[in-house]
Amino acid sequence: MNKRKQNLLLNALTWAVVLLSLLPIFWMVLSSLRSFGEITEGAQLSSEQALHWENYRDMWLNVDFLNYFLNSLIVCGWTTLFATMFATFAAYALARFRFRGSDTASIAITVTQVIPGMLFFLPLYMLYKNMGESWGIPMLNTYHGQIFLYVSLFTPASIWIMRGFFMSIPRELEDAAIIDGCSRFGAFVRIVLPISAPGIIATATFIFLLAWDELFFAWMLTSSAEVQTIPVGIRLFNGQFQHRYDLMMAAATVSTLPVLLAFFACQRFFIKGLAAGAVKG
């Protein structure tokens, strides 16, 4: 097989994978424009069927979807801010300094990523419950309870992404800044941070996407609609709101938009940051 045929075959396989990946999203958007009866009856799609745009209106009016949307923005926004900040400082320390316990810390961070979240759910739930009952620090059904957990969950992987990016920055740039009169922290702020901006943006996008989609812990740790996020809200369409699959598909489509916008806006930084982490990490 010559090179031209190989390229054609690779292109065909690539587009096949892309179309296969987009198929669930396409089905979700299409289902959001169908009636409840058409979805449950499994009616065949045809151009004669009317598009039910009112599903999007009913989603906002009949269910307090705006509340779930705002809760997700609050939880994911603060999670992204804190996790990115902690990951940046921790990754810089691991990439630039050798200190007692640095190797152990690196291994411990890696180990946390291979432990399934299901294993520590019960101890975590009991801890949150005892903190509210015994210590007077409510963690269940709170924004800060979810934010604290998400920061703990997503920071380790973010450290590895940022560590690889910091290691790709020549140390000589910092040494030159220090010779010119900068302190170590000044060199970090004035030299390292601006250069590593793509990696920081990629890490922040990565954290936001993970937090936006998280359902298991959000479902188990919150029972009040005042703090529940979009994944929990969409889950409630099935049962509490009479199995409204049409509204569920409309809500899922709307909740996907911020994720897509965030990804496409930061796509260049995201790929560059992950690639640097993969090479140097």
TrEMBL record:
Keywords from the UniProt entry: Cell membrane, Membrane, Transmembrane, Transmembrane helix, Transport
InterPro entries, sorted: BP-dep_ABC_trans_perm, MetI-like, MetI-like_sf
One of the record's GO cellular component terms: plasma membrane
Subcellular location(s) per record: Cell membrane
Domain of life: Bacteria
Topological type in the membrane: Multi-pass membrane protein
PROSITE patterns found in the cross-reference section: ABC_TM1
Keyword hit for Transmembrane helix: yes
Segments passing through the bilayer: 12-30, 68-95, 107-127, 147-166, 187-210, 249-271
Gene3D superfamilies named in the record: MetI-like
An individual GO BP term: transmembrane transport
ABC transmembrane type-1 domain residues: 69-266
Family membership: Belongs to the binding-protein-dependent transport system permease family.
The name this protein goes by in its record: Carbohydrate ABC transporter permease
Organism: Undibacterium parvum
Organism lineage: Bacteria, Pseudomonadati, Pseudomonadota, Betaproteobacteria, Burkholderiales
